[in-house]
Amino acid sequence: MKKFTAILAVLCLTVAGFAIAGRADTGNQSTPAAAAKPPANYRIHVDWHGAQGETNSLEVLTAEGQVELDTLQKNSVKINNNDIPVTLKLNATLKVLDDQKGQLQMFLGRTVPYVTSTNPMGNSSYSQMSVGLQSSFIVTFGKPDVIQSDENGTITVLVTRLDE
């Protein structure tokens, strides 16, 4: 009976020790509001240089999170003497990792019309498909990253933190 009482006492002390340690750890995990970082804006600048030397760029201002941009391009595609618009698309999600780095998940591309059918009178039906680059990578704020370089051209992304 003495052994049982001793084992029970040790078990109770161990459980009580874990409960006290658990409360202490929980208290250390909360961060005071004064230490929380204020939100910031970020500028995402994308440059792409085509194989024929043409240069394009876009720039968006966003906070941490998601940004979507769909915009018409100057050039269009002709199908049966009709000008079909081509859109430029940027969908991105920025997750800030610390003061210096972030994770950027990004789709950069465009919609391209394509003929789906032609009737005997020569009229065509068309649809649009999105083509482009989908990627996720770590950025260092203020430092440009080349995210694609091949015979079609080069795409560079620069994410800058705007501290106020």
Describe, in plain words, how this protein is organized in 3D.
This protein has 164 residues and is α+β, with helices and mostly antiparallel strands. It folds into two domains: 2-34; 37-162, no CATH class. Helix content is 17%, strand content 61%. It is built from one helix and eight strands; from the N terminus they run αββββββββ. It has one helix at 2-29; strands spanning 41-50, 55-63, 65-79, 82-96, 101-118, 124-140, 145-150, 153-162. The strands form two sheets. It has a four-stranded antiparallel sheet, with no helix packed on it. A hairpin with a 4-residue loop joins β1 (41-50) and β2. The longest helix has 28 residues, at 2-29. The protein starts with a helix and ends with a strand. Mean pLDDT is 78; it is low at 1-28 and 30-34.
Task: Please give a handful of descriptors for the protein shown.
4-stranded antiparallel beta sheet; alpha+beta; 164 residues; 1 helix; 17% helix; elongated; single chain
User: SSE string, helix = H, strand = E?
Assistant: HEEEEEEEE
Q: What's the total helix number?
A: 1
Count the E strands.
Answer: 8
Q: How much helical structure, as a percent, in the residues?
A: 10-25%
- The outline comes out as elongated
The stretches of 5 or more residues where confidence is low (pLDDT under 50) are 1-28, 30-34
Name the beta content range. Answer: over 45%
Number of domains: 2
**Cα distance, first to last residue?**
71 Å
- Strand arrangement across the biggest beta sheet: 2-1-8-7
Helical/strand content category: alpha+beta
Radius of gyration: 28 Å
Outline the biggest β-sheet.
4 strands, antiparallel
Mean pLDDT: 78
